[in-house]
Design goal:
Blueprint lengths: L1 H13 L4 H19 L2 H14 L2 H10 L2 H19 L3 H20 L4
Length: 113
């Protein structure tokens, strides 16, 4: 599973100039993490997160606010998350997931201006 996660990260890095593709690949990366837990509740919860993110107004919001610097920062966090997962650094991985959620919250609440 770590190989699939690494491949998804590689595709994210390749698509960093295309916001729509980047967002789809970011969803794939996190879906793989959810599926790797084997926890049906977590998998279902993440499916709901994806559904909410794909609502038209949210998609437009992400596209407006995800410029090159924010995508680069997201890729750095995602790379660090991958490294933490690969090293079995649970505390670090949890903190990086929390930070990613905080960034999403800022975008959705318009607190990033």
């Amino acid at each position: 599973r770590i190989e699939a996660l690494g491949a998804a990260l590689g595709r994210m890095e390749e698509a960093s100039g295309d916001v729509a593709a980047f967002l789809r690949l970011e969803e794939e990366f996190h879906r793989l993490i959810a599926e790797a837990t084997g926890n049906p509740l977590l998998i279902a919860c993440y499916a709901l997160v994806i559904e909410a993110r794909r609502q038209e107004f949210r998609t437009a919001l992400y596209r407006r606010r995800l410029g090159p610097s924010r995508i680069a920062a997201s890729l750095r966090r995602t790379r660090a998350l991958f490294d933490a997962i690969a090293a079995r650094g649970i505390e670090t991985a949890c903190e990086l997931m929390r930070l990613g959620l905080v960034e999403d919250q800022k975008i959705l609440l318009g607190e990033d201006d």
